[in-house]
């Protein structure tokens, strides 16, 4: 696969976005010009999915009332729900303190995940978490904590 210059946006990406310059100045983009966008159901606060936005996708999200992402795999903009009918109506958008992540609260219509589940985190499932800080590598499970033991 040929190497691409990370400073050159892929074909199809808008380079002269109409995003408010004061908003654009606050974004800390990755090497490909993208910012993570966490999507959350506005009323239940369920985390639905993670997508990626460049300036143009954020501009479209802020001005259209529908969530738009940049698809890293398809190398194109996609407005959530245009093909599936599983629309995300924007309720609010917030930028985190570092400027490198967005929180988009939405009214989700139908499934958020392309697998058909309500959230993209259902299919992957929970991972083992240890409160004692030890994991049994032979089974990949958390070893039970010993009462009174020091971590």
Describe this structure in words.
Pathway: Amino-acid biosynthesis; L-histidine biosynthesis; L-histidine from 5-phospho-alpha-D-ribose 1-diphosphate: step 3/9. Mg(2+) binds at residues 96, 98, 100. Its main location: cytoplasm. The protein has 151 residues and is α+β, with helices and mostly antiparallel strands. It is 12% helix and 28% strand. The strands form 3 sheets. A 4-stranded mixed β-sheet has the order 2-1-6-5, covered by helices on one side. It has a two-stranded antiparallel sheet with strand order 3-4. The longest helix is centred in the middle third of the chain and has 10 residues, at 55-64. It is globular. Mean pLDDT is 86; it is low at 1-6.
Tags for this entry?
151 residues; alpha+beta; Ubiquitin-like (UB roll); four-stranded mixed beta sheet; 3 helices; 28% strand; disordered N terminus
What is the topological layout?
Elements: H1 21-24, E1 35-41, E2 47-53, H2 55-64, E3 68-71, E4 76-79, E5 88-95, E6 101-108, H3 121-124, E7 135-136, E8 141-142
Parallel strand pairs: 1-6
Antiparallel strand pairs: 1-2, 3-4, 5-6, 7-8
Tell me the overall shape: globular
Query: How many strands, what sense, and barrel or not for the largest sheet?
Result: 4 strands, mixed
**What's the overall average pLDDT, rounded?**
86
Distance between the termini: 46 Å
Instruction: Write out the strand line-up for the largest beta sheet, numbering strands in chain order.
Output: 2-1-6-5
What proportion of the residues form beta strands (DSSP E)? 25-35%
The total count of helices amounts to 3
- Total number of distinct structural domains: 1
EC number: 3.5.4.19
Family: Belongs to the PRA-CH family.
Subunit structure: Homodimer.
InterPro entries: PRA-CH (IPR026660), PRib_AMP_CycHydrolase_dom (IPR002496), PRib_AMP_CycHydrolase_sf (IPR038019)
